[in-house]
What we know:
single chain; Glutamine Phosphoribosylpyrophosphate, subunit 1, domain 1; disordered N terminus
Amino acid sequence: MTTRRTFLGGMAVTGIAAGTAAQAAAPRATIVSTWDFGAAANAAGYAKMRAGGSLLDVVEAAAMVPEADPENHSVGYGGYPDRDGHVTLDAVIMDDAGGVGAVAALEDTVHAISVARRVMDKTPHTLLVGEGATRFARDQGFPKVDLLTPPAEQAWREWLKTSQYKPEANVENKRGPHAGPRGGALDHDTIGLLACDVLGRMAGACTTSGMAFKMRGRVGDSPQVGAGLYVERGVGGATSTGLGEEVTRVSGSARVVASLRAGLSPQRACEEVVRHIAQLRGDAIKGVQVGFLALSPRGEVGAFCLLPGFTYAVTDASGATVVLKAPSLFAA
Length: 332
Ligand code: SD4
């Protein structure tokens, strides 16, 4: 279990380490997450860490922030529905000791990440889907909440007029009042999170309502271990965002972690998988966004994407957060 002392210790160790190569490699406690709204999530994770929470507590608390935000139309409450008008959530949580819990196509429950954690803690399984996941949430005491907010319902009704399923890259910057000409109707704002402590222990989480107006029953990359998230002790972790089918077909996050295991830096490992997707898929990924974020157990961060526009938030052991733009394979 990671305590406040072990997480915050990162700062002290890093400070002492300055100047010698061996010491400079000491782990630095770090929280990273996808997109600019990851900054608010990281802040909640950092507060949990300061309060003495475990790394799983840290990533869960962070993921709960966008889940509760009605302005975020691709995570939790206020998420855009599937084409039949149902908001369905996908989430996974994972530590570096083989602990995994996930839910897919969960309904009527705000905090999918917490249900995923209960799957990990309270069941012999790693993934519950659909009706079974929703029933499990009720059994565990999670309140029934209608996730379809009036703006999300309005966007869905607007979408029904054409029923064109054409996910747009980077619509995440046009949420709410800044919605684009299509009302930001195909937003994608999944949050993927990774955290490490001063001991180099790691955990990760990923939560989303998936692609807006997806087919009923569609499950994206996010809740699938190895696709939307992967964490391996002593090696590192990775998470993804963007059009999930392009991540799932190559087990994207597991591939990033395999590259870390082979000696690539987090940055090079993210670049490798994005290049692979581009080469494999050719014209099929024109205009499609996919982004990866990776963290080593020492707190080194990497990020890369297909198209410009993918941002990520990095919080260090002092609590300072920066939001950075990931480099991209294509110019636009
Ligand atoms: C999905 N990968 O369900 C998610 C969506 C997403 O940024 O990441 N949007 O395909």
